[in-house]
Design a protein that fits this description.
Two copies of one chain form a homodimer. Chain A is mainly beta. Chain A is 11% helix and 57% strand. Chains A, B: It holds the Pfam family SUFBD_core.
Chain lengths: 306, 306
């Protein structure tokens, strides 16, 4: 059903060599090429065809959903709206991600809009990887939008990774966190060439004891440009922390605009940001261990992003 | 020449009980009520009457300029443009500041736009205090604008204080820092009642070894609102640090939007921000030493802002 390029992309974005266990939907070049629902997790196509509805029954534990997307056709543009309804008391892992291989001259674009409605006292781990390849002139464009609505006592951990090959991305994440709920975000971003990446977060802490921890690590190489824009709003007795660490290389440019908004006397918000290049001493140390300068650099970057 | 209210304001904003030593210009209710130029420092009125020109000769050391402004008349609105030309190799202190007493029903407003052109290898200390008093319904409005152009090797230290009584303020500071020059900013801000304060900084590090350190400490009480907006731009091998610590009390709201923009691989930029309330333990500790809760709170705030 899938060709070699698509299989390679699938491996890059979802770590899959074959069909995954559990529930899944695999989308290739705009069409579903494989789907499996399970006893507790139902995947269906929306009536208007605009995307998927994924329903996870209350109490579902230790199960996973994979919904990777691969594009290998130049000139394809698609917007997909996927909605996740996750019941109370669940413990699930959701793996999304998109890989684009573009060897053609037309731009290829996938915009995935994911909405998560998470019930009470659930734990959700969400992994999203973006990857591009292909040496065509056509650009590889990914604009993911993520909306997260956490009910009381829920914990959601989001791992957002974009390491390679995406020419242009505008990432938007919006979250509302209720009492006792917790949102953890770990973003890793690397841009190179002439790439352009904009990543924005808005997290509203709306309930007593709501907590958010948003950490972004990024590397900007060559002549790439990155903008990181994170806003944490404390509307209740809550705590929020955001951290943005960036390594700048070559002729890259980075703009970081964190925002803290405290609307409640018991909102405790903290932000840290640092932009700098790799310390010369670090490279020297690794070079005395026998690495070339290039290898030393790669090792430092890999350590930083992982 | 000045009445008791004006004298009290003058003391609050410039620490002056009488006419200061050195160069000065005292402005009261829209008119100059005293001026002194010295051998090295010339103060003159602009031809169009829009403000002052202050010229400090190269090599001027250990001298000071005071240009306080007091307003005690309700309904007065004024915009003043003061330009400072400071020669090479100077070491001077400049004290500005504005006090408004408004017992009337009309708003009183003073917008002072200060531009500093600082020559090479000079040291400048700039102190600016804003203060409001009076129980009239008319608002006390201060919108200071500050532009700073630092030539090579110069150091400028800015102390910006607004502790009390200003109903609305929009503070804008813009700076360009050349090679080897250094800008230090210490801002202390307190808002109460229904006050509104917006403070924005844009600092461009344009030369090799340029350095900026912008630190803001603020306390927002009652139903007041504060917005802090600091942007540091690294256009050269340079280092920048900005820190925003805020104490939130009562029903106040605070928004902090720092920005770091690195356009050079050798620009090292760091930001920290924290918003939170006074820790309960701190108050408890002072109360066991015999202070009332109110006194303990005041002592913590005073320590934090000084």
């Amino acid at each position: 059903m899938m060709d070699e390029i698509q299989k390679r992309l699938l491996n890059e974005v979802a770590g899959l060599h074959e069909v995954p266990e559990g529930a899944y939907n695999i989308r290739a070049n705009g069409k579903s090429v494989g789907r499996n629902s399970t006893a507790h997790i139902d995947i269906s196509t929306k009536e208007d065809g605009s995307g998927l509805v994924i329903r996870i029954q209350p109490g579902t534990k230790n199960e996973s959903v994979h919904i990777p997307v691969v594009l290998s056709q130049s000139g394809l543009h698609e917007v997909v709206y996927n909605d996740f309804y996750i019941g109370d008391d669940c413990d699930v892992t959701i793996v999304a991600g998109c890989g684009i291989d573009n060897c053609g001259i037309q731009d290829s674009e996938h915009d995935g809009i994911h909405r998560f409605y998470v019930g009470k006292n659930s734990r959700v781990k969400y992994v999203e990887k973006h990857y591009g390849s292909g040496d065509g002139k056509g650009k590889r464009i990914l604009n993911p939008g993520t909306e997260v609505y956490l009910q009381e006592g829920t914990q959601m951990e989001m791992e957002m990774v974009q390491i390679k090959g995406v020419d242009s991305t505008e990432r938007k994440t919006y979250a509302e966190v209720a009492a006792g709920a917790k949102l953890l975000v770990r973003e890793s971003l690397m841009t190179h060439g002439e790439q352009n990446a904009v990543s924005s977060y808005e997290v509203k802490l709306n309930g007593d004891g709501a907590n958010a921890d948003v950490i972004s690590r990024s590397v900007a190489r060559d002549s790439s440009y990155q903008k990181f824009d994170a806003k944490i709003v404390g509307n209740a007795p809550s705590s929020g922390h955001t951290e943005c660490d960036a390594i700048i290389m070559d002729h890259a440019r980075i703009l970081a605009i964190p925002q803290l908004e405290a609307n409640d006397i018991d909102a405790a918000l903290v932000h840290e940001a640092a932009i700098g290049k790799i310390a010369g001493e670090q490279i020297m140390k690794l070079m005395t261990l026998g690495l070339t300068e290039k290898e030393a650099e790669e090792q430092i970057i890999n350590g930083f992003l992982s």
